[in-house]
Every structure is written in structure tokens, then in C-alpha cells.
Amino acid sequence: MGFIELQRSEGIATLTLSRGKVNALNGAVVDQLRGTLKTLEGDPEVKAIVLTGAGKFFSFGFDVPEFLSVTKEQFTEYLTRFTDLYTYIFLYPKPIVAALNGHTIAGGCMLALACDYRVMVSGKAKISLNEIGFGSSVFSGSVEMLRFWVGGANATAILFSGAMYTAEEAKTLGLVQEVVTEGEIMDVADKVASDFASKYPPAFASIKSLLRKNIAKEMRNQERDAIQEFVDIWYSESTWANLKEIKIQ
Description:
Elements lengths: L3 E6 L2 E6 L9 H15 L6 E6 L3 E3 L4 H4 L4 H20 L4 E5 L2 E3 L1 H8 L2 E5 L5 E2 L11 H22 L5 H7 L4 E3 L4 H13 L3 H34 L2 H7 L6
Parallel strand pairs: 2-3, 3-5, 4-6, 5-7, 6-8, 7-9
Antiparallel strand pairs: 1-2
């Protein structure tokens, strides 16, 4: 089953996460998104990408109920693929704009942070790295990307609080760059993507690499240990009890 919808228009490829009501992430979503991005990377007709979600969610994050039934080894393998995905997006040579059409939570927020620009819908939608709230940790890469965008002090506040931020609050913190209405979001995201696409591609890719390659190197150096620590905490008695209470409708 396909969970990534692809549309093309005037050099802009729009990828829509489409999996149930909340676009929860699992291995199939991660693999399909990675594969689609890889194909578009080699397509000279595609100059920029917009990543968004179907419905009222950009993404809830991990499909927690699904992962409660897998082994530690299987979960660790998934986390390796997921963190590899956001590192790939973080270094992706073409512009990627995140159109945050709704709630952008945990792993969904990590994918958004890997993009070059975030436009978020105003209203009820919230964005959060809320892992600490249910007793989980995060990953080395997610911390480095967060710090890249919001600085050390704001990153500390965001991660230690696990707070759910409105689009306006997120803009103040640097989590998103622009706040728009529901009716405007795709037009604004397309305009940002088109502005990026108008830049000479080799120059854009070079500057993006210069800005991020040392950060990505640090992400990769620490990610394996961070994943192991994440798994140890995830399977602890206290966190496991909290995870069992998480429902996805």
C-alpha cells in the first residue's frame, strides 16, 4: 500500500504523507518516503519539494501501538532507518519545504526539522517534541537539528518541557518560519519552494552542505549510541506502561 502521494507542477514535487487519520510513521512510510525522495533527487525536472500531510495531521509521529508488538532488534532496526531518513533530508541537495497542515508531533516534528523551511497552519494545530512527557528520550540527530534552528537555550526548554506549541508560539521559538491560514498554506509553501528553486541548483546545494555537513557528521557519530539509549528507556517498565496508554484512532 502506498502512503506517499506525489504530485508535480512546474518543477515542484509535492509529497503528502497519507496513512490513516494521523499519518503515523512506521517502516513502510519511512521506506516509501526515502525511496520517493531518492527518485526525485535524480530527476532534473524537479527543482524543489514540498512535504505535507493529509487531513488534520502532518504526522503524529511513530505508530506506537504497532511498535509495541515488535522485538527490540526490530525496533532498533526501524530507528536506524528513521534517523538515516531525517539525516538524508537534512542534507538533501534540493530544497524541501515542510507545509505543516496540522499537528506535528515527536517523530513528525523531527522530519519537519530536517527540512529547509517550515510553514505552519494557525488555529488548533500544535507542534511538539513531547517525548519526555511519556518517559521517552530523543535522538542525537533530532537534538542537533533542533539546536541548529532554535539555539541551545530554546532547545533545552522545548525538550525538557515536552510542551505542545501553537504555530505562533513555534514561530517565536524558531521552530517554524511562517504562520498562515489553512486556505493559504499550500500556496505559501509552493511560493517558498519556487523561490528556493529559482536559485542556481549547484550553488544552493553547496551552501546547504557547507551549513550542515559538520552537524550531520556529529549526528552520525553519536546516533548509534543515542538509539541504544532510546531503546533501553523505551523498553523500561515505567515508559512501557505509558506507551500502552497511547491510542491511535
